[in-house]
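A further point concerns the way the authors explain their paired sequence and structure data. Nothing conveys this as quickly as seeing an actual entry. An entry of this sort, consisting of the sequence and the corresponding backbone structure tokens, reads as follows:
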Amino acid sequence: MLGKLAFKEAKRSLSSYGVFFFSLTLAIAIFYAFSSVYPQMLALLDETLVEKNLASLSVLESAMKVAGFFVALMFIFLVGYASTFFFKGKKRQIALFLMLGMERKEVAGIQILQSLLVSVLSFVSGIAIGIGLSQLLALLTSFTFAGDVSLYRFYFGTEGFLATLVFFLALFVLVSLFTLLSIGRTPLMELSQSSKKGEDKGAGSHKKTTILFLVIAIVLYVVGCALMVIGFMETCFCVFIIGSISGFLFFYSFSSLLNNKVKRSKGYYKGLNPFVYKEFFSRLHSASLTLAFISLTIILTFVLMGLGFGIQLGYKGEDNWSGFSYIGLYMGGSFLLTSLAILGLRQVSATTESKDRYLFLAKLGASRSEITGAALRESALYYLAPLLFAFIPSLCASIGASLEGRKYMGADLSGGIFLALGIILAVYLLYYFFIALKVRKIVNARKVR
């Protein structure tokens, strides 16, 4: 009975499952490819090349273990965020089931079965994509260690598959626990009125405290940038802690202060600007931790990809650095895709929750083009916020990386750094256009016209 109902509701809610399916598929694909990298290299290289590159492979193995831990954390955060977004979209349906007399454990069972169906499809799709991605990595492995692609052959990583299966099961258990706890603890009134619950406006913040937070954020920001230039390699962990605190305090405080400043500007009351700025600063305030995390991820992506490309283009040696280049590019790409997925989820979720506000604007006489334009401007501001925050630290990191490159490798990494910057901006822009289309579709839904 529950199985049939779960399958029926899953077919009915395909669009709601899209974000969850995409997030889990991305996590599975990249995790499989990442888990297969080292075993794949050992399988492709002959004994002569293994002995020749033993030092590089040893360093790479150690780096892979540390990197794998951080990649897993990134994807746990991503899937957890996707689960939260999915639960928000299902609140009214859950409330309807409860009002029809179903017990909470039965409703939770239906939601878990639906998640299982989507999760299995995500796992199959993710493994298929991951196998394709791993073949690209095999080509890169062959070129890195042999100078050509003669070593390449199709490879299926059994160890990587088993590791991914364990990772998938762990994610599904976490999602199921989240579903059980959310349905069990959320009051029926909150479930039935989910769309009316606005985001945190930060109205209770005191001005003096907010200014103090902003001053602390700016001081930490400057200190972190200086440390990256002075001692890039030695201060990485310290800079990460400083950046986390600085990013959170900055977005939390700056949103309130800038909101008051913008209200006094001449163009504030032009068109739908009051709505756009109010929504933007509200989301900036409520998503302070998420935006700080994304900003740090962008900086980390820039550093890893800049070093990876820089070593590939500017370093001619044959020691441990070639292995770092290989893993740096891969991790940088993984972090970039994950951060953009989280940012996109946040924006789509916020736009979906604001559908009633867009409907209200339409009732007040705003045209569809004006409402769509307002939503797209708000999305653009939201996407620019973490990128602008990360811009100066990324420049400082590039300076520090270039100095370290000359010191330890005698190589000029500037070419790779500029290449990484171009790729990151291009991917960021493409992903924004993809989310903008999704936002436009939500705003132009029949309910908002």
